[in-house]
Prior knowledge:
Number of strands of chain B: 20
Strand order of the largest sheet of chain B: 11-20-19-18-14-17
Radius of gyration of chain B: 27 Å
Order of helices and strands of chain A: HEHEHEHHEHEHEHEEHEEHEHEHH
Mean pLDDT of chain A: 95
Radius of gyration of chain A: 20 Å
Largest interface: A-B, 22 and 20 residues
Number of strands of chain A: 12
Oligomer: heterodimer
Number of helices of chain B: 8
Distance between the termini of chain A: 46 Å
Number of helices of chain A: 13
Largest sheet of chain A: 7 strands, mixed
Largest sheet of chain B: 6 strands, mixed
Structural class of chain A: alpha/beta
Helix content of chain B: 25-40%
Order of helices and strands of chain B: EEEEEEEEHEEHHHEHHEEEEEEHEEEH
Strand content of chain B: 25-35%
Distance between the termini of chain B: 63 Å
Amino acid sequence: MREEMVRDETVFVLGEDIGARGGVFLATDGFLEEFGSERVIDTPLAESSIAGVAMGAAMHGMRPIAEIEFADFIWPVFNQVVGEAARARYGTDGKMHVPMVLRAPYGGGIRGGLFHSQSPEAYFAHTPGLKVVAPATPYDAKGLLKAAIRDDDPVVFLEHKRTYRLVKGEVPDGDYTLPIGRADVKIAGDDVTVVTYGLMLHHCAEAARALADDGIGVELIDLRTLRPLDGETVLNSARKTGRLLIVHEDTMALGIGAEISAIVAEHAFDHLDAPVRRLAGPEVPPMPFSPPLEAEFMISSEQIAGAIRELAAY
Amino acid sequence: MAFQVELPQVGESVTEGVIGKWLVAEGDRVRKYDPLVEVITDKVNMEMPSPVSGVIARIVAQEGETLPMGAVIAEIDADEGEVAAAPLSPADTLGSLVQGLAVGPTGAANVPQASPTAPPAGGRNSPAVRRLAEQHGVDLSQVRGTGIGGRVTRKDIESHIESGGPGEATGDGAGDRRIPVTPIRKMIAANMVRSASEIPHVWFTVEVDVTGLVALREAVKERFRADSGHPITYLAFAVSAAAGALRAHSMVNARWDGDEITLRGRVNIGIAVATPDALIVPVIRDADRLTVAELASEIDRLTGAARSGSLKTEDVQGGTFTVNNTGALGWVSSGPLIVPGQAAIITTESVVKRPVVLGDESIAVRSMMNLCMSFDHRLLDGANAGAFLQAVKTSLEAIGPDTSPDSRLGAE
Lengths: 314, 412
């Protein structure tokens, strides 16, 4: 974000506690001093106005990065983003568009309980006119965030809270972007395709490494972008292995996994050698507070390994 | 009204049947008792009659599929008034309709709870496997499956093709032809594998001087055929001699049951009959109570029925011992496999004229026949098996010009 703000004067950030406090996860630590209060705006605790202000600024030539402190509080934004921003280009016959980024830390496994653990991606990914990005590694996060900032349309940029401190990786200095809408094959393999995103990528990778010792070759695909989905990468892999597992922390019904599964069923049916399987959060409204229950809600690498094993043996 | 056609109980101790050829197609109108489908059990084909009149709505069971008795094999849209007598199927009650369906706590989906990677039912092949099989002309029954429950996986078929399966095969496989295995052939294969792998076989041969039998048969055969309409065969004499000996040697007419041995109360002798594509063993019931003449008639009836495919289920069930006339094939010696569930099998070999040294040290031309026996060494030993075959030999050698076809051999 800093590099983009240096590079482009129209880029600015706004959100709760992002200025003097540097953001709840310190994503904008030091920004206020560096860029001043005109470009680093502490907002009132009113998410719909954060999005509304950002959308208005974007329509008038700015490139705002609006931060929702926790994705759990993104629902008041729903109308601004889904009802307005996503339709602006179409509704004005292309005369107006909304180059804004809506950053939101999401996901569980951090003892956040009911109101600091949600995964809202499926709601936004359903909406034509939006882009939804959910990177899993530091390298991808930087390249995709830059691409999101430079994109001329609204991008919901979801950052899994547990990856903030848990995951470390090389990030090159300097400018680079990664294409939105392109998945990444993180591990190549021939036996079972595993499609995932966000924190689950790391659990899946752990499972894949464990299974490699048993001679089961996992092809691990990180979607990185949830809308538009990179069907081509998924289909190529599914055609190669004939066996597909989709893993996400978000609940299962009508989720990202359902869409992936449908795409594969429609376009790679003749290559499937086993039923498509999904591992996803249970059909329970919130992430529980109780640590054992939270652990039960989250998908473990052991569960993932078990599901891959079953698919490989099918 | 939909009527579910179930695989009927077709005989004692029969727990499953193989679906042979469907004689009707979906949409066909059938009358009650019209033949619906061939069902193969225990080496016999039977045509199953329709239990109701109506229209075939759906054929559920695939040809070649092995199903337990009571399994639904088809659905018939029955004519009005037809189904009143038929019992309600369990699915007609609401309770059982929702059985096995799990509704998540939030009602997200109404789907069966079973894991999608549970073993597939009924040996279905995945789309990938079907596509590859079609492209390369692979007969899936020839591919060894390594997946769950023996399922053929995509890798299995790929390595099958790579290893020079059919299609445009070159080299050693060029010109090979693959033919599907018929259900009855599969059943024979399974029985023979079971016999060869489970039963410790011992086989041996005795020589029988059948000069008297040959003379008697030559003397009576024309008149016998004229009178009864049936040929009188060596097999009838052999079966009669075996039946008589079985009564005296009950351990040969027995079954190994693991913890105990069952001495069979009846003497039911199976005779092996070759048909163009299979081997069928129809059973002569209570062979020990029949005369040679009666045995000859029964053998003629059963072999005719076996060759025309009109055997009834009971004609092939309940055998306690088997006699196989391999002499008809020109053989002089064989080591037959025992039918699982029996203790022994004997074969009657070709009758050949040979110089034989007689008791008075003279050499004479005699009609000789080998009698071979395989016995299950779990319940029989050389001594009692040998005594049995010796008794058969003695009966056959005792036949003289005065022996009547209306007698029973070896009977006290």
